[in-house]
Specification:
It is a single chain. With 135 residues, the protein is of the alpha+beta class. It has one domain. The chain contains two helices and five strands. A five-stranded antiparallel beta sheet has the order 3-2-1-4-5. A hairpin with a 5-residue loop joins strand 2 and strand 3. Helix 1 runs antiparallel to helix 2. It is elongated.
């Protein structure tokens, strides 16, 4: 298998994984419990590479479960600019069957799909171009 074919195969695998992840998240609003919550802090993460440094932000969220237990977690979608401030009222989706909690927002629902499927399709396109230019 040459480099172009490998890129197509890897791209398809990444895109398929993104679709499966999105399918599970897309079902959460209908299967999960939607609870009010509050942003208590904005987490900051700096990622440095050889030629650039990026700062990413995600909200730390607190909510109370129906049984009275308080839960604090950091949202799993990190952004380049803070999307929330401490004190912001938000909602979370709690799926006890899957053991998952996510922020009820468009970026939580669609972000992984855009990231994984977009990256996968980009790799497929690069692989196809490489295959066609060698033919």
């Amino acid at each position: 298998m040459n480099g172009g074919a490998w890129l197509v195969a890897i791209g398809l695998a990444i895109a398929a994984g993104g679709w499966v992840l999105h399918r599970d998240r897309a079902a959460m609003p209908s299967t999960a419990l939607r609870l009010p919550a509050q942003v208590v802090q904005v987490e900051q993460r700096t990622i440095a590479s050889a030629d650039t440094t990026e700062t990413l932000f995600a909200p730390r969220i607190r909510f109370r479960r129906p049984d009275g237990r308080e839960v604090v977690f950091v949202a799993d979608v990190w952004t380049h600019a803070p999307q929330h401030r401490p004190g912001d009222a938000v909602h979370v989706l709690v799926d006890d069957m899957a053991g998952r909690i996510i922020l009820d927002s468009a970026s939580s629902a669609w972000g992984p799909l855009v990231l994984f499927v977009g990256t996968g399709l980009l790799l497929v396109a690069i692989g196809v171009v490489r295959l066609l230019t060698r033919a």
